[in-house]
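Listing 4. Sequential folding, example run.
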Amino acid sequence: MNNLIKYEQRSSSFSEFSQHSIRAHIINQLSQLGFPLKSIQNAILYTNSSDLKTLIFFLSKGPEGWDHEFIPNEQYLCEICNEKYAEHSSFIRKDEDKENLKKSIHSAINTSFINLQEEEKDEIKCGICFEEIFDQCIIPGCDEHFYCKQCITKYLEAKISNSQVSGIPCPGTTCRTIFSDDFIRSFISPDFVIKYDKFCKREKLIKDPFIKFCTQPDCEGYIRGSSTDVHQFCNICSHEMCFLCGKDWHLEVTCEETEIKKYNKWAEGKDVKVCPFCNYKIEKNEGCNHMTCIICKYEFCWVCLNPKFRNSGPCACPQQYNNDYNHVDYIDYDRRRVIINRILFGIFIFLFWPLLLPLAIICAPTYIMVNATNDDDSDIYPYLTHCQQALCSIPLTICVPLIYSCTFIGSLIWGIYLLYKCLERRYRRHRGLYY
């Protein structure tokens, strides 16, 4: 009989521990999804559910409003979402039920909520698992939040496992209390103490500009050096390293040459080319030949490195034919059209601007004098005004041809430059000089 009682006590304690762990895990998951801790606590209290999907549905707002029940507080706002009654239209679907629900809200729901608050006055609940606290954890500097020792231990171990050891805060959303080093060590196991010390030390070393970690696998060592003292040895495994690049020591070879040599060795046997626009190295392992550089977003054909055309299809190249990888020689027609347009515009300006100069010189003063002659007023002021206009027309007469000539010269130079770049690209493509 005694053994049966002990077994039932153990089963009951195990069940409480299991439920405790499940709720703590669910709270952690909902917090990572972005739900406020207070809303999570209220959702668990009102639903009394440990199902993740049920709680997410309870805490999510649909296109027609909240799906959960409207539970008013003193400000007549919902205790769960802190919004008005009108935002819960998804829960209240039928018009005939609205009046009945309004009447029952103040009686049944509000009464149960008041009773729930009165019960909470008699017992202190954990802010993580929301169960009654039997073994309370006292947090120095925080008098607002209460937690189980077991929940705090799991909370600290989760933070340490994620390498978050710098300034671990109280789990309360509005609390600014930071756990001290002694407080953390008193709650975690010896294995986690080792991890905690390791991550704390690593964070301090990362902030030191004169420290770099060893490149050897499974080595926790580091080197300490400077720009003038680059040849260093790991403090644990004595591995030779270069402080400038943080790689293995390279005698009589610069860091850049080492990187190039390492890259060339890696690129052997791989389909690697550079972007024709920004020279960023790209490796192609599968897919069509239509490539887009991740750096400059330049679209080009992988085979011929020419730009992608709008009228060539999503994957095809303008030079590709018969659905194979053979490419014909051609000139970039879009670029050639731009070059021809600029050259023709320059020729047009060059041929016609000499005619514009005498026309501007003759027509401007003539137009002003005709207006002055047709003026019936005998006052000398209009004549002075016309003279001022004639003087102002002289700079205009000089500037117009200069603008045309500068436009012509600029267009001609730009067209020649584009033609040169196009021919140079074609020559480099034929020679195989993609780099």
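-- end of first protein; second protein begins --
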Amino acid sequence: MFMSSKRILLVDDEPAILRSLQRLLRRRGYETLTAESGVAALAMLETASVDVIVSDMRMPNMNGAEFLARARSLYPDVIRILLTGYSDMECTIKAINDGGIYGYLSKPWDGDQLLNLIASSCSRNLQVDKSAKVVLGMHRENQKLKQCVERQSREMAMSDQYVKDAYQSVQTHQQLTENCLNNLLEIKLKGHRDVCHKVASIARQIAGLLCLSGTDVQLIRKGAALYGIGKIALPEILLTLPQDQFTQEQKAAYLSYPVHTASLLMTFPAYREIADILILHKSYLDGTGYPARVEPDHQHLVADLLMVAVDYVEYSVGWVTGQRERHENTVAALQARSGQYDERLLAAVSTVTMEVTTLQNDVSIMVPVSSLVPGMLLHRDLHSPQGILLISKGTSLSENMIQQLRRLQANIEERLILDVRFQAQEPVIEEVELYPVQASC
């Protein structure tokens, strides 16, 4: 029989339901505590530690949403699950937003579904705890290094080379932090890293067409890499179900992820500026989305650009409709919601397409495996769909490597796109399928 050391707190004002839940969970080896009200449960939590709370929604004096919100503020590490037969949509949304619940089931609940939800939440919490410790340790090391640089910068005897080396170390730590955060989400949302690369590519091209500054381009790069990390706080169903199939409650919960992203990034001083930008990348110009803009007429260009790039890529890879979409269909879908976007950005994204062109040796391009030729230099690390590093940045592609990549491509559904440049001094390759890089400004 499956055994667990986890302790579950069950909260319901109906003793018969509590007994039924206890029998179900004890058969799986869970230790259970029970409370017949939110007030009693809060009192119990003062003296007893628990791993998971399973609470009914409709209870007298303090309903499930209010209780879970209180529990979240006092015991944020405890996983919260809601059982509801209550039809009030606002209460359910309040439980999702204020209570930060991991998941919910409708009454009458299915025993196997409840057991699977509890097991999944415990497993995820263990993985998050391990990864969070890694991120926290890296953050502390980053802070120590930053303080060291600031202190040494005040000393006139510091050499220019030392300053450059220290700055590079800070940048390296920041990159490691970004990688760790994205690895954490990749565990839960397969393909997330590849989507981030696509968002970065599309956003960089739009920025080039609009002749944005180097500072804005750096913010765009960082935003593309980090925009989705708040999704780690979402229930798994919201990361597997196509967005077009969301209920209103699920849509409201999903649109909260930019707030989770910003909250996480605000704990890192180096990311506070990008946090202020990313919180707006689902805040559409027509007042829809979340959070709603306080000043709908005010446009933050970097946030608006990331909004278009994210929506374009997530639609094209199938996260919205459940199937991959062609460029023309994706652009048409965005244009149908034209009031939500900056018209300049819509016009720019419509030019981001596969085209035939002549390339110069100093241009970085995105090409599929079928268009690779020996001598191309990999401009960015290539990872498998599972996140495994296949080829490192700077590698010169040989005929043997290209053949191996073609065999790999033939055995997987996801299309491999490589960011490459050329070593040759003369113009190279015509009729290559690519994403255009940028216009001259």
